[in-house]
């Protein structure tokens, strides 16, 4: 019963955090791309008379920048000060961030929108804390399944967020963000009820811990440095896909917010279902298995490069199958192999690579989408394929492990 409550709390937090983070993905592409076709500019999409696609890419970039900082330090801070207080503060703060996002959209203020998305991302780095909480308190097959279920909850949030946007956008562009804020406040209350208070921390302050114990300190170790490089290349492809397949749907299929959310529902439903079973024990070498799954992910992303709507839709739907399995394999392997460095820091490093990849691919997309959106998707597929080759080579070099 105790483990069940712990896992349920972790999965709920994962669901709520990614639900809010994923809300803008079906809302922003029609908003910014529609300016070019319909000529309906406002303060949000005509800021400083910059190209709408450039503003769109910057809007995508700021949230991951906040996530990058948050995931790099929040996991280590929770190692020092405890999981419960960090989860309470970050969940409540992210709720405030969604309210500010709604105000920015209502006022048509692009600077406030960027500030709100940055702050929300900074506090949504709590994913590293939740993963570390499970890695700390669970062992063996239970931990494997729990981390897999948590991944499924994060994925379900990417399904539920766009679905929420599609179903409520008719009531106003701000409504989805107010709902997300309310859900996070509910999650904050549940954390306060379900997690026990932890002993008061004594020792260095939060700034000293953030400066000296952040996840990037782990890069001094050869194995973790290799993991970071490979994971960064893999997630560059994944984030290129997440960030720009909605824009690809707008350009190729003329999809609106509701249509994009329905496509996302299909992809994430399949991914969430897969994640439930992805944590099963397997005798295959984890790195070799991860390499095979990364190849499948690369092929799914590359399908959008054809520019054919139905081929791309098939790739979008099938993407979730190998990606869910890959996440389960690599996170469990990293927890087992490098847990001695602190589960909060290790899980923070994995989350940090995803955030850094978001920033890099959003920056690349700011340039490449001015020519053709397919360019950034194909570049992402190539990076993921390279990661697969490096993992395959790593599995054959025991000295590196």
In short:
It contains 15 helices and no strands.
Word description of this protein:
With 401 residues, the protein is mostly helical. The protein is built from 15 helices and no strands.
DSSP summary, beta strand count: 0
Strand content bin: under 5%
Could you report the average pLDDT, rounded to the nearest whole number? 78
CA radius of gyration: 20 Å
Distance between the terminal alpha carbons, to the nearest Å? 36 Å
Helix content: over 70%
Provide the low-confidence segments as ranges: 35-41
Globally, the shape reads globular
Number of helices: 15
What is the chain-wise order of helices and strands? HHHHHHHHHHHHHHH
- Report the structural category: mainly alpha
Biggest beta-sheet profile: none
Characteristic key phrases:
401 residues; mainly alpha; 80% helix
